[in-house]
Amino acid sequence: MTSMRTELATRSPQRVAANPRRVVTHLFVPGQEGFELQESRAGVVLSRILALSDDDVRATLHDVLTRFGDRHRNLKGTFRRHASELADRLDPDHEFTESRMLLLGATFTNEYAIEGAALCNPSIVAHPDQSGVAGGSLRFVMSVRGIGEGHRSTIGFRTGVVDSAGRATIDEPAPFASTGRLESSLLDAAFFRAELKRQDRAGEAADYVFDALGELFTRSDLDERLDSLRAHLRTRGHAEDTIAMIRDIADRCYAVEFHSDVTLSERVLWPAMEAEQAGMEDARFVRFVDDDGMITYYATYTAYSGSHISQQLLATTDFETFTSTPLVGRAAANKGLALFPRKINGRYAAMSRSDRESNTVAFADHLSVWPTA
């Protein structure tokens, strides 16, 4: 009698390798690199650029564009944006040439190699667009963790196809890498109340703020209500601490938008708040199907400030617009929360490792609030 053994998994020749040449641009202010509290050297550097002759400006700008122009999408546009950040330091009555403004922006621009150290920790979901895919095949989106200079982590993407025979092919990523445009997002009272309760701040000061705002509200609505509360501090003990805590939670909520011309593998989610300034780590994407059939792509990830970690929830329906909001509650402590792809008995479910050791299953009535595991 012979037995047949079926391989559970086979090694694919596909490789997802880090490319240190993939870079993004950011505003660079000399003297404000973040090492210590000090004044910037922007004024001194600006004076040196303004002192250059027109011929030197043109020659230097040509050299910069020749050396770096093929590494970025619309590099001149980046230089213009960064030059506009210095408008308050320029004489508004003086007409500057286009070349000088571009060189000024270039001087205050730096590159960051998003995959300079490593590329790791992928997660994979079905692509929202399956048009043109052969029968029996599936197009997918793969998230990747890029670890760059200084060990700062970002979230990037790859695409590919699994064919009818189970063979996976990963598409070559775009030559450019681009960060999105930061936007404000709607705020949800539920995770504010849950986090304030966890930190013993769910008192009359919090009720004064959120009872007047409803379930969903904007950041400007919240700030207006907090200013109103501050006007009555003498009759509300410890309200100042509550205000500070509410602002900290609100700072962890934002949206990022990418232009549709920017291909998916070009899009990079870059740390956008203080709680994740040292990295966005270990995104776990899942294609979530709600009870009404609506499909949303969620990912839990670890936000690292450089000294503390917290968990955040990414949400998108098209991989062009993303929102990031805090995950709160005991089951969302530490790292490791991973969402199930649908509700169980009407409740959200997730794997949790809130004690840093044991795997447990957590349930929640609100996607951002995980009280117990």
Question: Which keywords apply here?
Answer:
single chain, 4-stranded antiparallel β-sheet, 6-stranded antiparallel β-sheet, 19 strands, 373 residues, alpha+beta
In short:
With 373 residues, this protein is of the alpha+beta class. The protein is 23% helix and 28% strand.
Characterise this structure.
- The chain has 373 residues and is α+β, with helices and mostly antiparallel strands.
- The chain folds into 3 domains: 90 residues, no CATH class; 139 residues, no CATH class; 65 residues, no CATH class.
- The protein is 23% helix and 28% strand.
- The strands form 6 sheets. The chain has a 6-stranded antiparallel β-sheet with strand order 8-11-16-15-14-13, with no helix packed on it. A 4-stranded antiparallel β-sheet has the order 3-4-5-6, with no helix packed on it.
- Strand 14 and strand 15 form a beta hairpin.
- It is flat.
Helices, strands, pairings?
Elements (H helix, E strand, L loop, with lengths): L22 E5 L14 H9 L3 H15 L6 H10 L13 H10 L1 E5 L4 E9 L11 E10 L5 E10 L5 E3 L7 E2 L1 E3 L3 E2 H10 L5 H7 L5 E2 L1 H12 L8 H12 L3 E4 L9 E2 L10 E11 L5 E10 L4 E8 L4 E6 L11 E2 L8 E5 L7 E5 L9
Parallel strand pairs: 7-12
Antiparallel strand pairs: 1-2, 3-4, 4-5, 5-6, 8-11, 9-10, 11-16, 13-14, 14-15, 15-16, 17-18, 18-19
Q: What is the average per-residue confidence, as pLDDT, rounded to a whole number?
A: 93
Strand tally, please?
19
Strand order of the largest sheet: 8-11-16-15-14-13
Describe the largest sheet.
6 strands, antiparallel
Order of helices and strands: EHHHHEEEEEEEEHHEHHEEEEEEEEE
Computed CA radius of gyration, to the nearest angstrom: 24 Å
Q: Can you tell me the number of structural domains? A: 3
Distance between the termini: 48 Å
The shape is flat
Structure class: alpha+beta
Percent strand equals 25-35%
Helical content (DSSP H or I, runs of 4+): 10-25%
- Poorly predicted regions are none
Compute the number of helices.
8
